[in-house]
Specification:
The chain has 178 residues and is α/β, with parallel strands linked by helices. Helix content is 32%, strand content 27%. It has 5 helices and 9 strands; from the N terminus they run βαβββααββββαβα. The chain has helices at residues 14-19, 59-68, 70-79, 119-133, 143-158, and strands at residues 2-5, 24-27, 38-43, 49-58, 84-90, 94-95, 101-105, 109-112, 135-140.
Length: 178
Protein backbone atom coordinates (compact mmCIF):
# COMPACT_ATOMS: atom_id res chain seq x y z
CA UNK A 1 0.00 0.00 0.00
CA UNK A 2 1.35 3.41 -1.03
CA UNK A 3 0.72 5.92 1.73
CA UNK A 4 0.53 9.36 0.12
CA UNK A 5 0.80 12.41 2.33
CA UNK A 6 -2.36 14.50 2.27
CA UNK A 7 -0.56 17.84 2.37
CA UNK A 8 -0.48 20.17 -0.62
CA UNK A 9 2.66 18.92 -2.36
CA UNK A 10 1.66 15.32 -2.95
CA UNK A 11 -2.09 14.92 -2.54
CA UNK A 12 -2.66 15.48 -6.27
CA UNK A 13 -0.76 12.23 -6.92
CA UNK A 14 -3.42 10.04 -5.29
CA UNK A 15 -6.00 9.75 -8.09
CA UNK A 16 -3.48 9.43 -10.96
CA UNK A 17 -1.63 6.68 -9.05
CA UNK A 18 -4.93 4.87 -8.46
CA UNK A 19 -5.65 5.08 -12.21
CA UNK A 20 -2.31 3.32 -12.79
CA UNK A 21 -3.64 0.45 -10.67
CA UNK A 22 -1.56 1.09 -7.56
CA UNK A 23 -2.98 0.56 -4.08
CA UNK A 24 -3.01 4.08 -2.64
CA UNK A 25 -4.24 5.54 0.60
CA UNK A 26 -4.21 9.23 1.46
CA UNK A 27 -2.86 9.77 4.96
CA UNK A 28 -0.87 12.19 7.06
CA UNK A 29 2.71 10.86 6.76
CA UNK A 30 4.20 11.97 10.04
CA UNK A 31 7.21 9.92 11.08
CA UNK A 32 8.64 11.97 13.92
CA UNK A 33 10.25 15.01 12.34
CA UNK A 34 9.89 13.55 8.87
CA UNK A 35 6.98 14.03 6.46
CA UNK A 36 7.86 12.16 3.23
CA UNK A 37 5.41 12.48 0.36
CA UNK A 38 5.05 8.73 -0.19
CA UNK A 39 5.84 5.74 2.02
CA UNK A 40 5.43 2.03 1.38
CA UNK A 41 6.74 -1.33 2.47
CA UNK A 42 8.82 -3.31 0.02
CA UNK A 43 10.33 -6.77 -0.19
CA UNK A 44 14.02 -6.87 0.65
CA UNK A 45 16.37 -9.82 0.41
CA UNK A 46 14.76 -13.07 1.47
CA UNK A 47 11.38 -11.34 1.70
CA UNK A 48 12.44 -9.14 4.63
CA UNK A 49 10.17 -6.11 4.91
CA UNK A 50 11.94 -2.84 4.03
CA UNK A 51 10.63 0.69 4.35
CA UNK A 52 10.71 2.99 1.33
CA UNK A 53 10.24 6.77 1.49
CA UNK A 54 9.91 9.16 -1.44
CA UNK A 55 10.29 12.92 -1.26
CA UNK A 56 8.81 14.54 -4.38
CA UNK A 57 9.82 18.07 -5.34
CA UNK A 58 9.28 20.33 -8.30
CA UNK A 59 12.63 21.73 -9.45
CA UNK A 60 11.68 25.18 -8.17
CA UNK A 61 10.82 23.72 -4.73
CA UNK A 62 14.08 21.79 -4.66
CA UNK A 63 16.20 24.88 -5.27
CA UNK A 64 14.35 26.69 -2.50
CA UNK A 65 14.74 23.72 -0.10
CA UNK A 66 18.47 23.58 -0.86
CA UNK A 67 18.93 27.34 -0.42
CA UNK A 68 17.11 27.38 2.93
CA UNK A 69 18.85 24.10 3.85
CA UNK A 70 15.48 22.63 4.85
CA UNK A 71 16.11 19.51 2.76
CA UNK A 72 19.60 18.87 4.13
CA UNK A 73 19.01 20.00 7.71
CA UNK A 74 15.46 18.82 8.37
CA UNK A 75 13.94 16.47 5.81
CA UNK A 76 16.94 14.29 4.96
CA UNK A 77 17.95 13.54 8.58
CA UNK A 78 14.35 12.54 9.33
CA UNK A 79 14.31 10.17 6.37
CA UNK A 80 17.23 8.16 7.75
CA UNK A 81 14.74 6.01 9.66
CA UNK A 82 13.71 4.40 6.35
CA UNK A 83 15.70 1.62 4.70
CA UNK A 84 15.67 3.27 1.25
CA UNK A 85 14.97 6.89 0.38
CA UNK A 86 14.32 8.55 -2.95
CA UNK A 87 14.21 12.15 -4.07
CA UNK A 88 11.97 12.61 -7.11
CA UNK A 89 12.80 15.84 -8.91
CA UNK A 90 10.18 16.96 -11.41
CA UNK A 91 10.91 19.62 -14.00
CA UNK A 92 12.94 20.52 -17.04
CA UNK A 93 16.60 21.17 -16.32
CA UNK A 94 17.02 24.43 -18.24
CA UNK A 95 19.90 26.87 -17.93
CA UNK A 96 21.41 29.80 -19.78
CA UNK A 97 24.88 30.11 -21.35
CA UNK A 98 26.30 31.00 -17.92
CA UNK A 99 24.80 27.89 -16.34
CA UNK A 100 22.14 29.79 -14.36
CA UNK A 101 18.97 27.72 -13.90
CA UNK A 102 15.98 28.91 -15.90
CA UNK A 103 12.26 28.17 -16.08
CA UNK A 104 9.78 28.56 -18.90
CA UNK A 105 7.54 31.57 -18.97
CA UNK A 106 5.19 30.99 -21.85
CA UNK A 107 6.18 28.79 -24.75
CA UNK A 108 9.56 30.22 -25.72
CA UNK A 109 10.70 32.66 -23.09
CA UNK A 110 13.08 31.54 -20.33
CA UNK A 111 13.53 33.49 -17.11
CA UNK A 112 15.87 32.85 -14.17
CA UNK A 113 14.61 30.31 -11.65
CA UNK A 114 14.14 31.69 -8.17
CA UNK A 115 17.09 30.95 -5.91
CA UNK A 116 19.87 32.05 -8.30
CA UNK A 117 21.52 28.62 -8.60
CA UNK A 118 23.69 27.30 -11.38
CA UNK A 119 23.14 23.91 -12.96
CA UNK A 120 26.61 22.86 -11.78
CA UNK A 121 25.83 23.75 -8.17
CA UNK A 122 22.50 21.93 -8.32
CA UNK A 123 23.95 18.75 -9.82
CA UNK A 124 26.82 18.75 -7.36
CA UNK A 125 24.46 19.14 -4.39
CA UNK A 126 22.19 16.37 -5.65
CA UNK A 127 25.16 14.07 -6.06
CA UNK A 128 26.41 14.78 -2.53
CA UNK A 129 22.90 14.21 -1.12
CA UNK A 130 23.03 10.82 -2.80
CA UNK A 131 26.57 9.91 -1.74
CA UNK A 132 26.54 11.28 1.79
CA UNK A 133 22.84 11.45 2.66
CA UNK A 134 21.52 8.28 1.05
CA UNK A 135 18.89 10.09 -1.04
CA UNK A 136 18.58 8.35 -4.40
CA UNK A 137 17.71 11.01 -7.00
CA UNK A 138 15.22 10.28 -9.76
CA UNK A 139 14.69 13.00 -12.39
CA UNK A 140 11.43 13.37 -14.27
CA UNK A 141 10.43 16.04 -16.77
CA UNK A 142 6.70 16.26 -16.07
CA UNK A 143 3.87 14.75 -14.02
CA UNK A 144 3.28 11.88 -16.47
CA UNK A 145 6.96 10.86 -16.14
CA UNK A 146 6.74 11.14 -12.36
CA UNK A 147 3.71 8.87 -12.20
CA UNK A 148 5.32 6.23 -14.41
CA UNK A 149 8.54 6.38 -12.37
CA UNK A 150 6.64 6.04 -9.08
CA UNK A 151 4.77 3.06 -10.48
CA UNK A 152 8.02 1.44 -11.61
CA UNK A 153 9.65 2.07 -8.22
CA UNK A 154 6.68 0.58 -6.39
CA UNK A 155 6.73 -2.55 -8.57
CA UNK A 156 10.49 -3.01 -8.23
CA UNK A 157 10.06 -3.18 -4.47
CA UNK A 158 6.80 -5.15 -4.28
CA UNK A 159 6.64 -7.59 -7.21
CA UNK A 160 9.39 -9.85 -5.89
CA UNK A 161 12.10 -10.06 -3.24
CA UNK A 162 15.13 -7.88 -3.89
CA UNK A 163 17.47 -10.85 -4.28
CA UNK A 164 15.17 -12.35 -6.93
CA UNK A 165 15.75 -9.48 -9.38
CA UNK A 166 18.01 -10.50 -12.26
CA UNK A 167 18.06 -7.52 -14.65
CA UNK A 168 21.49 -6.49 -13.37
CA UNK A 169 22.98 -9.87 -14.32
CA UNK A 170 24.08 -10.63 -17.84
CA UNK A 171 26.63 -12.58 -19.80
CA UNK A 172 27.83 -10.51 -22.73
CA UNK A 173 28.75 -12.36 -25.91
CA UNK A 174 30.18 -10.25 -28.72
CA UNK A 175 28.39 -10.65 -32.04
CA UNK A 176 30.28 -12.56 -34.76
CA UNK A 177 32.35 -10.48 -37.16
CA UNK A 178 30.47 -11.72 -40.21
Amino acid sequence: MLLVDDRAGSRDLVEPLKRLGLPVRRTHNDFGDCHPDLVFEGRGEGGRAVSIAVEHKQLRELVQALRTQRLQGYQMPGMRQFDYTYLFIEGELLYDRHGLLQRRQGRRRLVPLEGHMTVGELLKRIHVLHLRGGLNPWWTVNRADTLQALSALYHVWTDQDLDQHKSHLAMYVAPPLT
